[in-house]
Amino acid sequence: MKKLFTNVAAFMLLVAVGGSTSAQTILMSEDFEGGALPSGWAQITSATDGGWNFGTNTALQSQYFPIDPHTLFACTNDDACDCDKSNDNLYTMSVDLSSSTTAFLSFDSYYFNASYSGSTETAKIVASTDGGVTWTDVATIPGASGWHTEYANLTSLVGNSDVKVGFKYNDDGAWMYGWCIDNVVILEPAVGLDLSVSNIVTGKNDPTPAFISLTKYIVGLPLQVEITVLNQATVPVTSFDVSWTDGTNTFNQNITGVNIGIYETYSFFAVDPYNTLNGNTSITVTLSNVNGGATEVNTTNNVSTHDVLGIMVNPDRKYFVEEGTGTWCGWCPRGAVFMNYMTQSYPNEFVGVAVHNGDVMTVAAYDGGLGISAFPGVKVYRNTTIDPSALEADFLNIISTPVDVTITGSATLNTSINQLTVNADATFINSLSGNYTFAAILVEDSVHGTATTYGQHNYYANNAAGPMGGFESLPAIVPASLMYYNHVGRALIGGFTGVVGSIPANPQASNTYSYSFAPMTPTATWNQNHMHVVIVVRNGANGRILNAVTVPIVFTTNIPENSSVSSLNIYPSPANDFLNFDLNLKSAEKINVTVTDMMGKAVLSQNLGTLTGQQTLRSDVSQLAAGVYNIRIQTGSETIQRKFVKE
Fold first, then answer.
1. Using CA atoms, how far apart are residues 296 and 191, in angstroms rounded to an integer?
2. Which CATH class is domain 25-188?
3. pLDDT (tens digit, 9 = 90+) per residue, 588-615?
């Protein structure tokens, strides 16, 4: 099944043409608001759906080619048709360029330039000077996320009186995606100097790596400010000053050593980051001193603003997702990359489980209960289904919202008899009607196997679909020796729907309800050091998850009364420079401390010698990268493991 490859986020590049200066000459414009083939336009197509069609995004989009709203526009959709779109050419009326000295095409484009099953779609600007008999390639259009403005230089066509410009889409003979266009303008640029701010975005280089920009971020997060400028006139731009302000702080820098030609853009990151403020903030960018202070044709476009919303996390809210994945699925590396990214970026709030389908890690009851049909797909609270690339945006929309219930719990693995016991507690914030249940999931990170069945199919190989967390440099089937699978759902504790009666019907506000699951025996081949438990509260009426929590596993022996450790308290988490643990030993014991990352690699080891009684110990974790870690405390007779978060 085909699954759309999308970047982490979409951005708009909106450039006003023709409205800011009378020195700019519009030779032709078309916005497709008529909802049909414009008068004087024509098309060539072999497609059975008519080729290029006209309408709104809802009328023209399809399952794997979703289109952002853009009033009425023209579009050829190969995903919907799956027909011959190897020569879909929509072309303009005749335009007279006989007296022009320069000419450019401007248009809004929605196009992925995606690859699928060894084929790659293409979108080109073509032109004819003989009434459409012969066509010449003018420009190849790059792919991007969302609507954006493209420019093509038509100056090679000036001097001709019968110029037609075409938009040619080619599906490469495969089932591909499509191309949409809007606001087509052929114009002569203004004579002189005119630099404008065309786009401002705030974001960060994560996780593929690619610069992504979202509409909101958590307060305090440092963001990069990316500024794009556009030369809208004939004089090349070689230098300019730029300042930006968030209303409280103002930063300035000078840009030199550039050569921005007619209708060329130049993008750069501001030297100083924007530290996300609470609430809506307008970032204002101002250009000045263009080409050392030369006079510009127009200065009204030297200033532009961009809004970003800072949000506060609700400390009671956990973002629970279950990802459908499989080693057979070539697009599923995307799921792995974004799930790992969310764990690393939001370790205190993100609770994720990878639910495998059709491979060696599949739990049939889990895969069947979740019922995901398009892979990779992510169910959020067992409610909505999204693409993994949309996780962060969805997370930011949800993480500040109130909850009906908070969950705590504990998980104890008796290593002598290999028995896992899970206890759950739910405190209801609001009174609810109906039936609710506790359910739990045993999750293992860094799952690794030597059999070929652990190899991962990879459509990102050879950079065929853009960067994807390193998978673009790996082969089409990543060998098992290189694969470590995180978030793997190993077992359902209490079943997919939870234990009936584990929470009394119609739970009341301020009440805490507790439940102990029946003990279970983890499979011996699973790595106990990489496991944790996820506890959820499920609505029996609609199957949705109200909230979730990740619980670390504490290791004990089968004779607790003979344990050498009376108590253990680890703090703080998140930790910054040091991790402390209060340890009460019943007798003299040799103490060793080992910290491992989520891949199982030891990153810190300490031999603390022989200790007894109440001890307060400290480990220096300042050199560790931010993320989730396991700390393993070994005495002479037992091992206790906990998780902690490093900021």
1. 10
2. mainly beta
3. 888 888 888 766 778 888 888 888 888 8
- Helix, strand, or coil (residue 471): helix
> Cα–Cα distance between 249 and 270 in angstroms, integer?
13
pLDDT per residue as tens digits for the range 190-249: 999 999 999 999 999 887 777 888 989 999 999 999 999 999 999 999 999 999 999 999
User: Is it true that the peptide bond before 333 is cis, omega within 30 degrees of 0?
Assistant: no
What is the dotted CATH code of the domain comprising 319-553? 2.60.40.10
Determine the longest span between alpha carbons in the chain, in angstroms: 98
Q: Do domains 195-311 and 319-553 have the same CATH topology?
A: yes
| Closest C-alpha to 359, from 332, 320, 339, 380 | 332
In one-letter notation, the amino acid at residue 227 is I
Do the Cβ atoms of 455 and 479 come closer than 8 Å?
A: yes
Q: Provide the pLDDT for residue 13.
A: 30
Name the residue ranges covered by the structural domains of the chain: 25-188, 195-311, 319-553, 562-646
Which residues neighbour 483 within 8 Å (Cβ) at sequence distance 6 or greater?
327, 448, 454, 455, 456
Q: Which pLDDT belongs to residue 615?
A: 83
CATH for 562-646 is 2.60.40.1930
Q: How many CB atoms lie within 10 A of CB 587?
A: 10
- Residue pair 540/605 in contact (Cβ under 8 Å)? The answer is no
pLDDT > 70: percent of the chain: 94
Q: Give the per-residue SS3 of 430-445.
A: CCCCCCEEEEEEEEEC
- CATH for 195-311? 2.60.40.10
Q: Can you give the length of the chain in residues?
A: 647
Residue numbers of the chain with a pLDDT score lower than 50: 1-22, 559-560
DSSP code string of 158-171: TT-SSBEEEEEEE-
CA nearest to 260, candidates 227, 216, 282: 227
Report the distance separating Cα 612 and Cα 600, nearest Å: 29
pLDDT at 566: 61
Number of helices (H), then strands (E), belonging to the chain: the values are 5, 41
β partners of residue 203: 224
Contacts 24+ apart (CB under 8 A), 504-508: 505/434, 505/435, 506/431, 506/432, 506/433, 506/434, 507/405, 507/426, 507/428, 507/431, 507/432, 507/436, 508/428, 508/431
- Please name the amino acid found at residue 304: S
**Cα gap 590→565, rounded to integer Å:** 12
- Are residues 351 and 549 in contact, defined by beta-carbon separation less than 8 angstroms? yes
Counting residues of the chain whose pLDDT is more than 90, the rounded percentage is 74
| Structural contact between residues 110 and 32, judged by C-beta atoms closer than 8 angstroms | no
Residue 561 in tokens: 């009364």
| Average pLDDT score, the chain | 90
pLDDT confidence of residue 133: 93
What pTM does this model have? 0.75
